[in-house]
Amino acid sequence: MTLPILEARGLCWGPPRKPDILTDISFSVAEGEVMAICGANGAGKSSLLRMLYRYVAPRKGTVSLMGRDIWLHSARDTARQIAAVLQEQPSDFALTARQIVALGRLPHRTGFATAAIRDAEVISAAITRLDLDRFADHAFGTLSGGEKQRVMVARALAQEPHVLILDEPTNHLDIRHQLELLALLRGLGLTVICTLHDLTLAAQYADRILVLSQGRVLSDGPPDQALSEHHIATAFNVTARVDRSGPAPRFSFHL
């Protein structure tokens, strides 16, 4: 049986000297699978991601990458295999967009000339793939919020990871770039784990959806199962209706 590329088992976490805000979180993600994590504000979505990309250690439980606890990998080895795109964008540091993308190659740096050539090729390909060529040499601080977000995704792609983790990647993007980015993520062939607040986009682009409610897994499965009216109502404390008569589900909500 093939091991999942990423597996969470019994994860619990909370801020120092405070109760757990995530309890007994378990799931596994297969190679090439796109999983969306959904839930109300405060459900623990971003905190869960921080454990998955080795920023914080769980109080209990393990996160395994290809069968090995990520805390037994070095930080550099983890960065070669897991890339993260966060909601918080970095300060300017007077760098250009190209220089920001180039930071993605740091875990792979060896100092050899052949490696430098390879780095330049990967950086250029990531910039082109995110349609950033015309902004590549502009100062990062002069870009719009959406352009900055695309630069950060390009930086993550430059890491050449096996697993790409994104926290609300469609924030700051207009509708066209939201659709383009999610289509791009689906076409990468990577394992993708992202939080999404837009349930329509999650249902359209994710293979699986994990719904969190009050720090626990409420549902985990294909979109039509995970995003049932009952699960949405429970997770978001609303009355939900799902219309599945068309090619994509349509959601409506009422207090």
TrEMBL record:
One of its GO terms (molecular function) is ATP hydrolysis activity. It comes from Cypionkella aquatica. SMART domains: AAA. The lineage of its organism: Bacteria, Pseudomonadati, Pseudomonadota, Alphaproteobacteria, Rhodobacterales. Belongs to the ABC transporter superfamily. It holds the Pfam family ABC_tran. Residues 6-239 form the ABC transporter domain. Keywords: ATP-binding, Nucleotide-binding, Transport. It comes from the Bacteria. InterPro entries: AAA+_ATPase (IPR003593), ABC_transporter-like_ATP-bd (IPR003439), ABC_transporter-like_CS (IPR017871), P-loop_NTPase (IPR027417). This is ABC transporter.
